[in-house]
Amino acid sequence: MKHLLIYAGVLMVSLQACTNSANKKPDSVVNLPTGDSAFLALKDTAQAKINQFVDSLKLHAADEKNYVFAVKSDFIVDGQHEHMWSRVFVLNNNILQGMLVDSPYV
């Protein structure tokens, strides 16, 4: 759970986790060097806001018309990392449940 929550916040910049679905933007791929200071600062901010993400999810998860909750998780296969978006629908027993999506803006 801790690792999922850490990665849940990695690219969630201050409450972008609950983006209004009307604000759709294209997703892009970015390769960052290990130890990128801007990324690490965003990660720290996101991790500091994880409780706000969870509270908002609990309040608004059923309102799929106005809210989209997304997390980006690190999947590792044969030592290769791939970060993929998941749309989150519920937090159940400290486990985020959702489905893989191409973009956080769907």
Brief account:
The protein is about 30% helix and about 30% strand. It has about 110 residues and is α+β, with helices and mostly antiparallel strands. The N terminus is likely disordered.
What do these coordinates show?
With 106 residues, this protein is α+β, with helices and mostly antiparallel strands. The chain has one domain (2-22, 35-101). The chain is built from 3 helices and 4 strands. It has helices spanning 2-10, 37-48, 50-60, and strands spanning 18-19, 68-77, 80-92, 95-101. Strands 1-2-3-4 form a 4-stranded antiparallel beta sheet. It is globular and about 35 Å long. It starts with a helix and ends in a 5-residue tail after the last strand.
Number of domains: 1
Tally of alpha and pi helices: 3
Overall spatial form:
globular
* Amount of beta strand: 25-35%
Subunit organisation of the chains = single chain
Which regions have little confidence, pLDDT < 50, spanning 5+ residues? Answer: 1-22
Order of helices and strands: HEHHEEE
